[in-house]
Amino acid sequence: MEKLVRHAQRINRLLARFGVKFGIYKNGEFHEQLFPFDALPRVITHDDFAMLEKGLIQRVDALNAFLRDIYSEKKIIADGVVPEDFVFASSGFLPQCDGFMPPKGIYSHISGIDLVQGKDGDWYILEDNLRIPSGASYPLIARNLSRQASPSTFVENQVDDNRNYADMLRELMEYVNCGGINVIMTPGRYNAAFFEHSFLAERTGFPLVTCSDLYVEDNVLYFRDYNGRAERVGAIYRRISDDYLDPLAFLPESVIGIPGIMAAYRAGNVAIINAPGNGIADDKGIYYFVPKMIRYYLGEEPILKNAPTYLPFYEEDRKYVLDHLETLVVKDVSEAGGYGVVFGKDMDEATLAHWRELITKESRRFIAQEVIDFIDLPVMENGEKVYRKADLRAFVLSGETTKVWHSGLTRFARQENSFVVNSSQGGGFKDTWVLSH
Hints:
Blueprint: H1 2-17, E1 21-26, E2 29-34, E3 37-44, H2 46-70, H3 75-78, H4 84-88, E4 110-117, E5 123-129, H5 137-149, H6 151-156, H7 165-176, E6 181-185, H8 194-204, E7 208-209, E8 214-217, E9 220-224, E10 230-238, H9 242-245, H10 261-266, E11 271-273, H11 290-298, E12 305-306, E13 309-310, H12 315-324, E14 328-332, E15 341-343, H13 349-361, E16 366-370, E17 376-381, E18 384-398, E19 402-404, E20 409-412, E21 428-434
Parallel strand pairs: 3-21, 5-12, 6-7, 6-10, 10-11
Antiparallel strand pairs: 1-2, 4-5, 4-18, 8-9, 9-10, 13-16, 14-15, 14-16, 17-18, 18-19, 18-20, 20-21
């Protein structure tokens, strides 16, 4: 036990030295903090991960098919599988992307799928993150530092090597590249995930750029290096939200975007990773329909389960939610990072009444889910082993084929009995071991 404590302390000191942090904005101020690492790994058996891999590939392939359809023929709406109003009322649907197919027809090149394992042993999908999912850098650097701290650990245990993430990213970017170099774009030092942007640029060997390094001329995107030399960009891994990507197409007040990049994109001269407009597919309301998408586009039964979910948009579901609110978790479909999540069990009668009124008035704004009693994982705290709720963010990369990274970001709640594991809400993380046999 003492050895594990010393191991964790050493890794956290190294993480601090290397600046492995994330940033949050609170009350209009930017704060950086460390992402606490726990030395006890999450272990996933070879057979368990093989099942997860099949289910994740199936899910992401269906979501990419949905995005191709919804921005072109919209057959899934015409056939009554997904309501028209439900799609077009979503803030994630971008009219600027309608009628255009991205290079190689891929929208979500990097998908971050959040899962939990219930105490019944089954895995449940909680959320699909298809815009700019973050977090892959943390298990990457933690594994590297763990190897330094305890080399024998990975000799004695049959754990899949996770150092290939940068190769997978490089491979998919080359696949969709429209002619030119690949770059990783960051909005800058004060972005919450700046460490990840710089780390992935270092590992892939691609330039880390900001908007001031890029410009568009004749519908072609160029990178100007520190010598003033210009090079054409064929693929850009952008780490800024759609709204700020191009002030000529979206928010005109954006100072971190690239004027004209959407024109270059629509002209077929650059691939944007992930594609603009993906927000419609990771809308928490659209999540309800993903099992239907799998059946509709792939003709298959879903391998992985959704958490039992209710849409107040439908009268029958709304009635159930209002009658059982005290046992459910309610999520605002437009929020992320653990924000906009409330548990009925934590509400008094007056608060329950307020939420029933709000859900009735703004039924499209919310989903409700049964609270899954997901497993607790062992965590070291003050030299003692305690148990905390934990989820898993799996990373699925779509290029010529769809592949699942044999690792992932396991986040855990630091408060006893808390179900909220997000880093922005004070959670920690641990390594995820996928056993090779």
